[in-house]
């Protein structure tokens, strides 16, 4: 009887620790959650650091005893950062610009990806390789040629210099977007397309009525990727468009703008690290809000588009 109870206890303990298939045991879950918390802390630490320090006063910043809890919350740091970055007008302007180029590159990438996936034409493989090569080439290599082309076309220093390339599949990181659509459209059974052709559907109708509805996850993930990349892009935007049309570009000139609004020597208005961190937080805040709203759809889209190559 004692041996039977011992075996039952041993069996229950083993199931509790390791589960039926090891993946449902407490040991496996402990290891997984420990790794997840560790990696998430590595990625979240800069955001936590910026958030905490953006509310600190000058005394807290230079006080080695103050690490994570400010002695008092300095909301005035965000008030001054709002003035320098000209919010919320800057968010509206940046969002308007980024939406135009993101939607354009998403639509063009879908059309190009569908063409590579479903049609046969001369030099298809060569063109596909050249398309992928555009992602390898750094923007510094082609910037002189692009500037000459845009200047001859009268597009320099206008948003059209970013919108037109996006429309024709040459936007920022467009090769990756085309590859995502290509991978997804390749998974659509050819029998489905052939049956639609037998029923008299044209290629445009097949693309709009069959391919696009099935590719909604791909559209979502490409749009989110392009939105974030265009939002954070400063080098190409400042080179071709010029000015300070986006929040990241205004953040680059934060010090000069601040000194214009609050000249050096103004009592109680000296620029410090906390105010600059507040500006950083306000710049990335729209992207954080976008991610928290769309994170569920984002994860589902990655799983359904086969972006990992599965």
Automatic annotation (TrEMBL):
InterPro entries: MetI-like, MetI-like_sf. GO terms for cellular component: plasma membrane. The keyword Zinc does not apply. The keyword Membrane applies. The chain crosses the membrane at residues 21-44, 97-117, 126-150, 162-185, 206-231, 274-294. Belongs to the binding-protein-dependent transport system permease family. This is ABC transporter permease.
């Amino acid at each position: 009887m004692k041996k039977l109870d011992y075996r039952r206890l041993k069996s229950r303990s083993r199931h509790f620790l390791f589960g039926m298939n090891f993946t449902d045991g407490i040991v496996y879950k402990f290891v997984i959650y420990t790794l997840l918390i560790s990696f998430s802390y590595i990625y979240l630490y800069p955001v936590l650091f910026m958030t905490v320090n953006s509310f600190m006063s000058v005394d807290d910043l230079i006080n080695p005893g103050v690490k994570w809890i400010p002695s008092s919350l300095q909301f005035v740091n965000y008030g001054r950062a709002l003035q320098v970055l000209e919010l919320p007008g800057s968010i509206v302007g940046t969002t308007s610009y980024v939406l135009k180029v993101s939607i354009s590159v998403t639509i063009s990438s879908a059309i190009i990806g569908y063409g590579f996936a479903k049609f046969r034409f001369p030099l298809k493989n060569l063109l596909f390789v050249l398309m992928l090569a555009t992602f390898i080439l750094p923007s510094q290599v082609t910037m002189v040629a692009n500037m000459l082309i845009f200047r001859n076309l009268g597009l320099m220093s206008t948003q059209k210099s970013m919108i037109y390339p996006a429309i024709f599949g040459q936007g920022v990181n467009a090769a990756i977007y085309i590859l995502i659509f290509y991978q997804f459209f390749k998974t659509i059974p050819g029998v489905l397309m052939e049956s639609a052709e037998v029923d008299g559907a044209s290629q445009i109708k097949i693309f709009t009525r069959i391919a696009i509805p099935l590719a909604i996850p791909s559209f979502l993930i490409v749009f989110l990727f392009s939105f974030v990349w265009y939002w954070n892009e400063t080098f190409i935007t400042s080179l071709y468009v010029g000015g300070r049309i986006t929040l990241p570009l205004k953040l680059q000139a934060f010090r000069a703008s601040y000194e214009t609004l609050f000249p050096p020597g103004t009592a109680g208005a000296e620029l410090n690290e906390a105010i600059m961190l507040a500006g950083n937080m306000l710049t990335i805040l729209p992207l954080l809000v976008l991610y928290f709203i769309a994170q569920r759809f984002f994860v589902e889209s990655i799983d359904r588009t086969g972006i990992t190559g599965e």
